[in-house]
Amino acid sequence: MSDVLLENVSMSYGSTLAVDNLTMTVSDGAFVVLLGPTGAGKTTTLRLISGLERPDAGDIRIDGRSVVNETPAQRDVAMVFQQYSLYPHMTVRENLAFPLRSPILKTPEDEIARKIREVAEVLSIPHKLDNKATELSGGEMQRVSIGRALVRDPSIYLMDEPLSSLDAKLRADLRVELKRIQASLGATMLYVTHDQIEAMTMATHVGVLDEGRLVQFGSPREIYEDPVSLYVAGRLGLPRINALPAGVFGGAPTEAKTIGLRPEHIAHGEGKPSTVSRVERLGDQTRLHLQLDGHDIVTLTDPHTDLEPGDTVAIQPRNALYFDAAGARIA
Ligand SMILES: Nc1ncnc2c1ncn2[C@@H]1O[C@H](COP(=O)(O)OP(=O)(O)OP(=O)(O)O)[C@@H](O)[C@H]1O
């Protein structure tokens, strides 16, 4: 596996600047998750590294070697797309073997057989190896797509929401399995997801993109606890961080325009009276929707709470984050 470095990389589609002067290192063995809303440039970043797109400016290095003039095959990256992309006329076994038989890798047949067995086991598809790709369910096809990357030992795995089309149980199982495989292989991974749990549990580092720019890079915990802006604070955490006018509870720094309160950073029992507007019981947690001076707030409460809409709850902030008028963090 390898270090992958993007250095001042920019790329436009026509007049749309998709990636804007992006500098980022994916270190050997790191699991980097890219976060950002739709259109932020996540997929384009993966396509630039894989060689499916060429940067207009900047350099991309794999293990110190500039790869911008190399073909995707020469770069030796493995990409998994959100939508499976299998060869429909081939069996699962042939699909998995395909990348290993490339003229560049030329893997011996006994090793191909061993790798296919291993990967099929991990992905729970050994009984499907002789099926045609078209004879699989959507979830099975996506597992084969992931398997096609995992049979290889590329310089980096690039995965674009690989689990998003799977059902909840399979997604949870494969999340744990992918993380285990990555850690045990010491694989370098760049992974796009909108899933909060995947980002928090799989990533060693999170990169937050905003309109093609990297606005923060750090451990999931840093991004969650110490965001540089309101935009970054809104990318991690479910329910999302509450953003309210800075003065609602008093005591805000003078420059502050907005107070950011994560659901778990709202203490109940003392402070300003708020009105319960909705109680959402999710089983393991109960979300409390509150109204305070005309603002909606979402917080968490005891799963067995007796609170009902119309009740009054006194609340006060604990560990608030403050942001200025431009959304930059000031405290
Ligand atoms: N083939 C294309 N032609 C023209 N514009 C494109 C093309 N692909 C992407 N774009 C534009 O480039 C920008 C970045 O797109 P990109 O797909 O990288 O975003 P993303 O963060 O991956 O979004 P999503 O979460 O929806 O996948 C967007 O404004 C998008 O509309």
From TrEMBL:
Keywords for the protein's UniProt record, in alphabetical order: ATP-binding, Nucleotide-binding, Transport
ABC transporter domain mapped to chain residues: 4-236
InterPro entries to which the protein is assigned, alphabetical: AAA+_ATPase (IPR003593), ABC_transporter-like_ATP-bd (IPR003439), ABC_transporter-like_CS (IPR017871), ABC_transpr_MalK/UgpC-like (IPR047641), Mo/tungstate-bd_C_term_dom (IPR008995), NA-bd_OB-fold (IPR012340), P-loop_NTPase (IPR027417), Transp-assoc_OB_typ2 (IPR013611)
Pfam family, one: TOBE_2
Gene Ontology cellular-component annotations: ATP-binding cassette (ABC) transporter complex, substrate-binding subunit-containing
Molecular function via GO: ABC-type transporter activity; ATP binding; ATP hydrolysis activity
Family to which this protein belongs: Belongs to the ABC transporter superfamily.
PANTHER family: MALTODEXTRIN IMPORT ATP-BINDING PROTEIN MSMX, OSMOPROTECTIVE COMPOUNDS UPTAKE ATP-BINDING PROTEIN GGTA
Designated name of the protein: ABC transporter ATP-binding protein
Biological source species: Roseovarius indicus
